[in-house]
Every structure is written in structure tokens, then in C-alpha cells.
Design goal:
Blueprint (H helix, E strand, L loop, with lengths): L5 E4 L2 H13 L6 H23 L12 E6 L4 E6 L6 H8 L6 H11 L18 H4 E9 L6 E6 L4 E7 L5 E8 L9 H12 L6 E7 L2 E8 L16 H12 L5 E9 L5 E8 L17 E5 L2 E7 L11 E6 L8 H6 L1 H24 L1 H15 L2 H4 L4 H7 L3 E2 L11 H6 L7 E6 L3 H5 L5 H5 L5 E3 L4 H5 L4 E2 L2 E5 L15 H10 L1 H11 L5 E4 L8 E4 L7 H9 L10 E4 L4 H8 L3 H18 L7 H13 L1
Helix pairs in contact: 1-4, 2-6, 9-10
The chain binds adenosine-5'-diphosphate and magnesium ion (MG).
Adenosine-5'-diphosphate binds next to helix 2 and helix 3.
């Protein structure tokens, strides 16, 4: 067949990626082999899946495998698979274009670091282009399973590529790398073998290289990897290195995983799961981006069914990567069918339990790793309190916070730690929510608690206040927001009921004065049992929505009923005393407003009229 060769330009972003790949990746150049073998393996997986419904696709060639061969004279390295192949349109779409949102991130990551590590590349769904790290020309010839036309794609990795129709007897894809002059090591048989052993041993299809005798090809093949799906092998036989390499393959991550759990379950449901905790968050974790790579890979009886089977784990565990291989799901399961399958719920809760078990184990035996986990994924994990009612107590046990008794902003205190050192007579777990560590730690609301040596958990992440709405009790102890209601400190060394009555009586005058001066601005003015050093603070009633939550909802454009603040005062404070004795009514008003504005500022409330606040402060300062 002859057809004119068509030359096309790469999409602008592809050209940019290629430029960076060829000019700035210096370390770990060898990963191109891992990426191309990984693509070949994906192609074999896809074909095996398509062949479930159309067995004729495998016609006459059902042993899926990947061949790697070297031609020293021609200076080429060839990776060939008999997987699904690509049609002409697919070649253009998959190799000439980059659909993934990862491209831009990849470009940013690379341009920030000119000597970037080639390892980065697989993560962003641009692994194929790593071929250009070592090749000055790449020729890809492919024929899709079930079609007769083949196509050849060729590029030197600059701005354009060519496409032509060709004949190709075998189904699948062949990628020929024309190795650059100074990259001879990739033309060494032993070198390539050892790279496959290092990076691709776990690939579930045989990777073959020509058998040689006295440096001459014998016409036979050696299988150079284990060639059995890693998770199907007995745990005791799998080395940590193999687990790590497999993680990199399935997660498209160049970092090692933090930890993993590998289990075979037999009973009324049979399945194997191999679940990993990554060490670093993917770039789109918090954006909640429905990344096509997210979730677990689902296999049924060793046959790859789908990527990103997010139904296999609840959303709050969306950072977990891995494989689930079920013996019970039907092979022809689709996303829609999966949702309705009653085995799914069981699989999901079993996988969830495995992940929680793994986290328990880390928390207990490897606190440093647990701390890494918490730092990276803690905020996502917290969503579990709302999402996973059945496991709420287990999730709560794994939460970590900063506290008034821990060092610095690191979140290291568990609810059990807290309960273990509660004061005699204390029956609640106290916490404060604020916008950041400094705001929490310095909040006047903690003063009396600190004075009485009562520990307070400092909740400083945006999600915390929302999360605490789902956790009112833990291990029989109520969780109490220190900004809400009566703290009942009398049992913990604070003022007794009588003492408080007396203080309140003595302060009746100033409370009344403040109520008059502030009028509609406040819901109430009260004498505080929270304060020792500050003049005033804002508090909420038990049923009020927290201030941070109100802000969050407002920012999200929602209608939030504005609750007027309740002002609590410290009658012993000099400013309050001054107000009490202030004869000039204009000055008294200024003082009252100052107290209110300060208290609001401390809560992170944006003042309605900041200029007026500044004017009042300046007037005081210059008086
Ligand atoms: P990723 O593998 O992360 O999707 P790559 O850049 O490695 O990104 O590959 C891009 C796409 O090209 C693949 O998703 C696949 O559709 C296609 N592709 C690459 N290599 C092969 C192959 N050997 N057989 C079939 N399709 C392939
Ligand atoms: Mg790839």
C-alpha cells in the first residue's frame, strides 16, 4: 500500500513538553524504558479486556507479550507489543495531542527546575515523550486489533511529526528509538536487561529479549521479568523493592510509596487487594479534580477491567492507590453495572477497613510515617467523619491536632492522648477553631482554660469547624468548642458559681452601660468566665454556626443569616474599668466600640468599618 506521507505540527503544548524533555532532563534518563514498557503493558491489558466481548480480536495471537530488541548497527532500540494498537485517529489523539490537565503542571514543574529529573515525566501522562530523552528520532508503527490498516508515526522530537499508512502483519505497536550518539549504554544488551529487571519486573506480561550465544542471536527469546501479576504472588516472595516498583507503575508516581497493605480474602467473597499510601499528594488532590487516574485499578480474575474505580473506596480515601482483583464480579462489568453490584459494597467496606488497619499500624509502629501521612492527607482524611458513619470512631482515633500542650504548630496530639492527660473532674474535650495556628493559640478565649491548666486542641484547618459538626463525642467524652456557651470551669479550678454571681453583680453597671452604648450591634453583653488578661471576647451560643464556617459559606456565595455577636467582658481589665468611670459620653462610646471591634478582629471577623476603628484607636493614642 502506498499513501502520501502527511506532515503535521504538534499541538503547541506538546512541542513545549518535547523541547523541555530533550533539553532539560539529565538524571534518570533510563526511565524512558519503564514508560514505554508500561505503555505496552497497558496496551496488552486493554486488548485482553476488549477481547472479553470480542474474542476474535485475539485471533491467532493470544499470547500477549512485550519484546525488546537492540540493533547495534542501526543504533536502534525497539519495544514491540501485540496489544491493542492504535488507529490513525488514536495516534493523532494520543501521541500528537495532550488532553491531560497534567501537561501545564508538568511544564511548570520543569521550567522551575532546569535540571529536572526525568523521573517526573510519567506522573503527568506524558511518558511516551520520554523516548526523546535518549532518541533523536522515534518511529512508532501500529495496527489496531480488529483493523487492517496500519499507520507509521515518526518524529525527531521537534515541532512536527509525519504520518503514513503502512502494512503491518502483526497487531499491536512497535516503537523504534534511534539512539542519540552519546547514549550508547542503551544499546548494551546487559544494560537493557538490568533496567527491565529494575523497573519492570512486576509487569504481568512476559517481557522478552533475544537469546544470544557468543554474542550472536539464536532466534529464541529469554523472558527477562517475573511476568506474573505481582499481587497474585505470595507475600513472602515479594521483595519491598518489587512492591515499590509496582507502585510507581500503577500510580504514575516517581516517589516511593509511604506504606502498603497486601491481602487475599477468601470466603463468601474472594478478592485480593494491594493498597498503597503515597508519600506525596498528587498535584490535584485538593482541587477535587476528577482525575482519570484516581482510585484503584480493578481487575476481575486477573483481567484488567478499569482504571480509577473510585467506587471501591470512599472519597475521603481518594489518595489511596492500588489494585483490587475480584473473583466474583462479572468480567463484563461496566462503571454503571459496578454501582449496582451488591458485591461492590462489601468490597468497598473491606478495602476501607484495610486502609484503616494500615493507618492504625503506622500510627502505632511508625509514628514518623504516620506524621508524613497526616501532613499530606490529613485534611482529606478528615472528610471521613462526615462520609463514613460506620467507621467514625476509628477515623476519630486517627485524627491529630496541635494543642496548647504540644510543641509548635505540628499536629501530633490524638484524642486519646488528650483524654489520657485530662484533669481530674474534666469530662469534656475542649477545642478551639481559628484561621491558623497563631490566631488559635493567642485567642483570649483560652485564657481561663490556660490559667487552670486545661488542655485545648487547636483546630486551624479550614475544614475543621465543618468536620467538628460531625464529631460531638469521642470515647464517651463530649467535644466542646471553647467559643460556645458556658465552659463550666468551676469544676476545673475556675471561679465557683457563687464567685461568678458576685462578679456579675459587681459588674452590672458596666454591662448595662455597654449594652446601651452598643445597642443593636450586639445580641448580649455578659461577664466572662473565659478571660483573665484580655478585656473582651466574642462568644457564640451552643446552637450558633461557628464564625469561620459563616465566613466560608459567605465566601462561597451562600446566604448566611447574620447572627449578632455576644460580647463577653472581663470586668477586672483596666479598659473596662476605664469605661465604667468614663464621664464623657463620646469617649465612652468610642471605648465600647473599640472593645467590640478588637474582640471581632481576634476572631478573624472583617470589620464593617475599619477606618472608623483606626480613627478611634488613634484618638485614644493621642489623647
Ligand atoms: P499515559 O500512558 O500516561 O497515558 P503516555 O504519554 O505514556 O501517557 O502515552 C499516551 C497514550 O498513547 C497512551 O495513553 C495510549 O493511549 C497511547 N499509547 C502509547 N503507547 C502505546 C502502545 N504501545 N500501544 C497502544 N497505545 C499506546
Ligand atoms: Mg504511559
Amino acid at each position: 500500500m502506498t499513501a502520501a506521507t502527511e506532515t503535521r505540527k504538534f499541538e503547541a503544548e506538546v512541542a513545549q513538553v518535547l523541547h523541555l524533555v530533550t533539553h532539560s532532563l539529565y538524571s534518570h534518563k533510563e526511565i524512558f524504558l519503564r514508560e514505554l514498557v508500561s505503555n505496552a503493558s497497558d496496551a496488552c491489558d486493554k486488548l485482553r479486556f476488549e477481547a472479553i466481548g470480542k474474542p476474535e480480536l485475539l485471533a491467532g495471537d493470544s499470547d500477549l507479550h512485550i519484546d525488546v530488541s537492540i540493533d547495534k548497527d542501526a543504533r536502534t532500540l525497539t519495544i514491540r507489543d501485540n496489544g491493542v494498537g492504535m488507529s490513525r485517529d488514536e495516534v493523532v489523539a494520543n501521541i500528537g495531542t495532550i488532553a491531560s490537565s497534567g501537561t501545564r503542571k508538568f511544564l511548570e514543574a520543569l521550567s522551575a527546575d532546569k535540571k529536572a529529573d526525568a523521573n517526573l515525566i510519567g506522573q503527568f501522562g506524558v511518558g511516551f515523550y520520554s523516548a526523546f530523552v535518549v532518541a533523536d528520532k522515534v518511529t512508532l508503527t501500529t495496527r489496531r486489533a480488529g483493523e487492517s490498516d496500519a499507520v507509521r508515526w515518526e518524529s525527531a522530537g521537534t515541532g512536527e511529526y509525519t504520518l503514513e499508512s503502512v502494512d503491518k502483519a502483526e497487531r499491536g505497536t512497535e516503537v523504534v528509538l534511534h539512539i542519540k550518539p552519546d547514549e550508547d549504554e542503551f544499546l548494551q544488551d546487559w544494560q537493557v536487561r538490568s533496567l527491565i529487571a529494575r523497573y519492570s519486573d512486576h509487569i504481568g506480561f512476559p517481557i522478552r529479549m533475544p537469546k544470544e550465544k557468543d554474542g550472536k542471536p539464536t532466534g529464541e527469546w529469554d523472558v527477562v521479568n517475573q511476568a506474573s501479576a505481582l499481587w497474585t504472588r505470595p507475600k513472602a516472595e515479594i521483595k519491598d523493592e518489587e512492591y515499590r516498583a509496582f507502585y510507581k507503575h500503577i500510580a504514575h508516581d516517581f516517589n516511593d510509596p509511604l506504606a502498603w497493605t497486601h491481602n487475599r480474602v477468601e470466603g463468601n467473597q474472594n478478592f485480593t487487594s494491594l493498597l498503597y499510601l503515597p508519600e506525596q499528594a498528587p498535584f490535584d488532590l485538593m482541587m477535587g479534580g476528577r482525575d482519570e487516574r484516581r482510585g484503584l485499578k480493578l481487575y476481575v480474575k486477573r483481567v484488567f477491567i478499569m482504571d480509577a474505580a473510585e467506587q471501591l473506596l470512599p472519597a475521603y480515601l481518594r489518595f489511596v492507590r492500588g489494585v483490587v482483583d475480584s473473583d466474583d464480579l462479572p468480567l463484563n462489568v461496566s462503571r454503571e453495572i459496578l454501582q449496582q453490584n451488591r458485591n461492590l459494597e462489601k468490597l468497598k467496606s473491606a478495602c476501607t477497613r484495610r486502609v484503616l488497619d494500615l493507618l492504625d499500624k503506622l500510627a502505632k509502629d511508625e509514628p514518623e510515617k504516620f506524621a508524613t501521612f497526616w501532613k499530606t492527607f490529613g485534611n482529606v482524611f478528615k472528610e471521613g467523619l462526615a462520609e463514613d458513619f460506620a467507621n467514625r470512631e476509628r477515623i476519630a482515633k486517627l485524627l491529630r491536632f496541635a494543642s496548647t500542650k504540644s510543641d509548635g504548630a505540628a499536629q501530633t496530639v490524638s484524642l486519646d492522648d488528650y483524654i489520657g492527660r485530662m484533669k481530674a473532674g474534666q469530662d469534656a474535650i475542649y477545642f478551639i477553631t481559628a484561621d491558623g495556628y497563631a490566631a488559635a493559640k493567642g485567642s483570649p478565649q483560652l485564657e481561663a482554660l490556660k490559667a487552670n491548666d486545661v488542655e485545648v486542641l487547636l483546630m486551624v484547618d479550614r475544614i475543621d469547624e465543618w468536620m467538628m459538626g460531625y464529631l460531638s463525642e469521642y470515647a464517651g467524652k463530649k467535644l466542646r468548642n471553647v467559643a460556645k456557651g458556658d465552659l463550666e470551669l468551676d469544676k476545673l479550678g475556675g471561679a465557683t458559681a457563687e464567685q461568678r454571681k458576685e462578679t456579675e453583680k459587681a459588674a452590672e453597671g458596666v454591662v448595662k452601660r455597654l449594652k446601651d452604648l452598643l445597642g443593636e450591634r450586639v445580641r448580649d453583653v455578659r461577664v466572662s468566665a473565659r478571660l483573665t488578661d484580655s478585656p473582651a471576647c466574642i462568644v457564640l451560643d451552643d446552637q450558633d454556626m461557628g464564625l469561620a464556617m459563616q465566613r466560608l459559606l459567605k465566601q462561597a456565595g451562600q446566604d448566611v443569616p447574620t447572627t449578632k455577636p455576644v460580647l463577653e467582658i472581663n470586668p477586672a481589665h483596666a479598659l473596662v474599668k476605664r469605661l465604667e468611670g468614663e464621664a464623657d459620653s463620646a469617649r465612652a462610646t468610642d471605648l465600647a466600640l473599640l472593645l467590640l471591634d478588637q474582640a471581632q478582629l481576634l476572631e478573624g471577623v472583617a470589620l464593617e468599618d475599619p477606618a472608623a476603628y483606626v480613627r478611634r484607636v488613634n484618638a485614644m493614642l493621642t489623647a
